[in-house]
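Each field is set out as follows.
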Amino acid sequence: MVDELVTVQTFWNVSAAHLAKSRLEEADIVAFLENEYAVMMTPHMANPSGIKLNVKRCDAQAALEVLAPQK
């Protein structure tokens, strides 16, 4: 059975997307960036969907906790 992916955050900046992905990977959460290259190659077109940070549905809640702003 294939794990369904869900988007936990969307970015328009490639560096910010990679930083968030790294934070998830440090927490042992597998993450994938969707549309990364489209946004990198055509930033002037302002891709309306942005770069999507995706994780397995079963990891979504943990990913949101890792990505939550620090207080």
Notes: The longest strand covers residues 5-11.
